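job 3f2a | input accepted
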Amino acid sequence: MAAPKSLIFQLHRHWEVVEQLTRLSREFPAFEFSVLEHVLNQYKSKDMDSNTVLSSLLNADILQPVNRSSDYQLNTLVIDFVRGLTQEHELGLSAVLKARVEAIKQATSQVLKGLDESDNDLLRAGANQLSELTRKIDQQLTQDKQAIFEIAELAKSADTNVPIERRYREVLEVYDQYVEPMNEMMDSGLGGSFYPLLEKAEEALDHAVDILSIRGSLYQQRLAMRQIAYQVKDLRYQGRVIAQQCADTLLPLREEARQHNQLSTVISKLLGQVRKKGLARGLRAAGLPMWKSARITKIQIGNEVRELMAEFLNFEPSSIPFPEEEEAPTSSMINWVDEELLREQLADSLPVANLMTWLRENYQHLPDAELLRLYHELVRDPQWQSTLGMRSSTTALNTVAVTYHPHEIKTLTGSTNAKDVDNANE
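job 3f2a | predicted structure (426 res):
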């Protein structure tokens, strides 16, 4: 291998020749001397000799002689370098991309193990491996995207006289062998591996930054972890974007190839003839089946269906008499207390400062709901005067305690007892 400076210098001097040879390398894995001489004469500088250019390329190891042959081939490193600069990449393998994505899982576990064991060397090695994997995956995704764009452009610009199944053959192969596996890998659900693995790697790196901050590690080490976490985040976003762009580029061509295959072309041609000449003259009647089937198909009803239909025919609805309406027994309401006697007792006890307290003391055996009902009815009774108190009071009943503003019960003004009130009402 030649020195890097010499190789770069010769690339600078003879870039046009090397670029043309790189393009021809797609079709010719090795170059005969006649082809090489033709390229040198066409693309070399005018002030230089072809033999001098050839010797410079050989000495810089840009061109390499093929063993047991008189042919020459380009150095693979030069091919990759030139294709990278000219954005003319070969489509990679989805299996290689998948293997690199799976390697992220091992690098993430190495980072977590380094954190648990407080091993800075192991932590640094896992983080560097993550950085290298993200760089390679990002580079491959970018190259594959550019290669797919070139494949689509070549398919669109191909000769239209060539059948579409031949023009779009590479498009269909790329979609089936690369785009669909990549979409499955980029799926953010349970079936995908790209998004979940990168998400775990990102969480591990963020956790490493927090732990290193707590431990008081060097700023440079924390900064390196944070930068790698940014790379992982950007790769997770760019991967899904590139996968979507590749699918959007090839999917219309794939659908077009499916719609315009050889069968659809023949059918379109026959339909055009029928449209122009009619059915009788457009199609040859001889040999056509005329849409008749020689095979006779019989349909027979099963025994289960026959038994069911027989039951339906012999079905007789049964009459069900409705029960006559019966009067429900009326239950008399429970009378807990003699209200007339209660009112007489209350009238004899007037004035009463707190009606609820009076009821609680004299009718303690009554349920709480009955006491509350009597309280509200007696307050509204017109035969005495009830006054609402300003301060609230709390009285404990049998099961509950009520808080309220007590009512004071007094004799009506101008009356001395309840009998006078009744006479006045009459």
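job 3f2a | Strands lie at 63-65, 72-74, 385-388, 393-396, 401-404, 407-410.
job 3f2a | closed
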